[in-house]
Amino acid sequence: MTEVKKRVLVTGATGFTGGALAKKLTERGNHVVALVRKSGDVTALEKLGAELVYGDITERTAVMKAAHGCDAIYHIAAVYRTAGHPDTYYEEVNVTGVQHIIDAALEHKVDRTVHCSTIGVHGDIEELPSDEESPFNPGDIYQRTKLDGEERFAKAMENGLKGTVFRPGAIYGPGDLRLLKMFKQIKRSFFPLFGGGKNLYHLSYIDDLTDGIILCAEHPAAIGQRFILCSDEYSTLKELSAIIAQEMGVKEPNFCPPIGPLMLAAKVCESVCKPLGIEPLLHTRRVEFFMKSRAFENKKAKELIGFQPKFSTREGVKRTIQWYEDNDLL
Fold this sequence. Notes:
The protein is of the alpha/beta class. It contains 12 helices and 10 strands. The protein has a domain of 223 residues: NAD(P)-binding Rossmann-like Domain (Rossmann fold, 3-Layer(aba) Sandwich), CATH 3.40.50.
């Protein structure tokens, strides 16, 4: 008997994670529908043969149209810490947008709906490694609205929505540009480890993550659950930068200036620039990259749905460097 091809909606498919997920779902024989904005680069999606529905996650009618006839929804779209957006825009995308997904899933009787949250909902917490039950402590508008969206989705699950929430670690791998600056600085032998690089950093390699996301939509035990999806290992920022340097054949970073003056400069910069509507040259959140520790357990996802990361940090870094080099980004 021939397996019926599933029709699946992916939001955020022009982004790094959503694009990688759309590719993997297509390779698995699914018909991917992508909700995309007219300003988005849809070249990769067109090559996949994805069905494009133009609209925005903030537009209820567009979400309803995109979800029509779908067997599953993967909600990846979000607005991140992008400069220039008022708090209301974060609310519209990260909270109201989630409600539109919930409404569409219920209206069209979608079999499974998966919502992407963030480990940032835990913010700064003392007990490490953390897990799904660790306290919430969002520290900025992005994290607060992502938590609001997750809680709204969780309430819908309690009321009968067949869904799952996942919180990814720091996502990286071929196709990622967010960590490119760090790789480039290390290659140029100038990556200051402010504060010594002692804070912990936990990654999620893109191929492992997309496997986990699909498990969230297909495994019976995933319904109604919230999972942290991250790699099996974490390291200090100093250790991570050393691995990157070793794989590029350059000197390991060892310049460790104090972090206090940098944070002070960031606060002054923000206090001057923000009232004027100017993009600050230095953000406190960028400084916090060298301060806040992130370390998590993926035990729940392993035990309930069989999540099994395949890539070590070193192998993931090696593959990421190769992609950067192949695309002349380093």
